[in-house]
Amino acid sequence: MVIPTAFLVAGGFYTFGLLAIIGALGVLLAHRVFHSALFLVMTLASVAAEFVILGADFLAMVEILVYVGAIMVLILFGIMLTPQQVHLPDIGSAGRSVAAALVAGAIFVITAAVVVTSEWPRSVVTPMDVPTTQIIGQQLFGPYVLPFEIASVLLLIAMIGAIVIARED
Amino acid sequence: MGCPAEWFFCDPFGRLHALVLTSLGAVLPEPFPTIIVTVLAVAMATTIAAVIVLSETLAERKWVGNMQGRLGPNRVGPSGLLQPIADGIKLLLKEIIIPTQADRIPFLLAPLVTVVPALMVWSVIPWGPGLSVTDLNVGVLFILAMGALPTIGIIMAGWASGNKYAVLGGMRAAAQLISYEIPMVLLMMVPVLLAGTMSLQGIVEAQSRIWYVFLFPVGTLAALLFFIAGLAEINRSPFDLPEAESEIIAGFHIEYSGMAWALFYLAEYGNAFVVSAMTTILFFGGWQIPFLPIPPFLVFFLKCYLGFFVIVWVRGTVPRVRYDQMMRLAWKGALPIALILIGLTAVIVTVAPGLVG
Fold first, then answer.
1. Contact B177 A57 (CB under 8 A)
2. Cβ separation of A41 and B152 shorter than 8 Å?
3. Does A133 touch chain B if contact means CB atoms closer than 8 Å?
4. A125 domain residue, yes or no
5. What are A113-159's pLDDT values in tens digits?
6. Which of A30, A60, B173, B205 has its CA at 20 to 30 Å from residue A118's CA atom?
7. Which residues, listed in sequence order, are joined to residue B131 by a DSSP beta bridge?
8. A112, part of any domain
9. What is the pLDDT of residues B21-52, one digit of tens each?
10. How many CB atoms lie within 10 A of CB B4?
């Protein structure tokens, strides 16, 4: 009996996909904010694992480095600095809750219908088994240099704005 | 020059790998031999990590003892050699106490979140030509990503312990690691730019003509700053504020005991070796040594252990820095210098590509 490699790859893909979904549900259902944040870490790490399986090595590492390593650490840092025993006031009456549930359910049905019915274009190109870093770099500084520079300027503006707000004078 | 690959003692692991692979390939169909050999290689890397950590704990206690005019451990075994084993048995037998105020699941998960990435790093470390469990072409990024994950574990430990000292330690760790991660990433880019690859094997091979630490001023300054940022990144003295005994007792791991505590310890000493290993790989030519026929894995090991000695030496001599001093060093010292060094390196690589080989 020979297990084909494709079977193992598919198994890994669906396992991590399931973990990502469990994490996403955990973010919503956890009672404590800190637990929500930890579930978010789980989701992001699972997505990074999916990137590895799909052959996007650079993207996977950056996902962990930026999202788990920096953004989640900042979120956890913020949670630790806020009081934990905060009782949120009830947001609205029962009628409002029903209305909210209806709207959310409708959005879910529409999205699900679109996902199920639409024809997803399947790429016939096999995943690249080559280092992606160099290709990403050449694309960023070649054809996509204008969006790249605009994003840089945007980040710079945000950074200066943050410094101006945070300055105490 | 160097160690000829035909000699068995120059490449024993490579020979062993080939032997196991061919003998398994004769019995089992693909992909089983590859899977088994990979699992064996991972197990071996983890075992080597654990053994190195054991030796490090003894070496550190001996060296710090000598620096302070003491003997260090000398009771268990000949001149204290079995002390780490005795400590390990003691830790295994100890009870893991969970405080009533603790958040149980994050409390128990935190040591694992800290130690698993710390061990995963060992799979990309190049011990010799072609001698690593896997040679990722994003190796440098992989090390950085795995270095960022334990932060989450430390914050989890600090928060879940239900102890204010632990929370303080966790917060200090978060702030410190974010601050020093940025100069560290930037400084890693200096050898990456010079070598033109992010594969650790590739970076070592690119240094066959000159080790980057000798490229004054770019490589030398980058190596020095990288090592300092590395010390901060792994919470070692003089940047051990997250566990400062005199201020917050033991910081984030104050409530941990037994093996749960030992896992933090394992991660910390594993990372101490990895920081020396990264400095060796990025700036000191990895497993390369000119003229001498010494096996590459031995060269690499000795270079890394020399780095660990410097870490212990710093601990034995430099007092702990104050919190604001540490932050100032990161944001006003290391970060601008790292940016300038990257700019200089880019200019050098563009203007005189022949200079660095």
1. no
2. yes
3. yes
4. no
5. 998 888 877 766 665 666 677 788 888 888 899 999 999 999 999 99
6. A60
7. B128
8. no
9. 788 777 777 667 777 888 888 888 888 888 88
10. 9
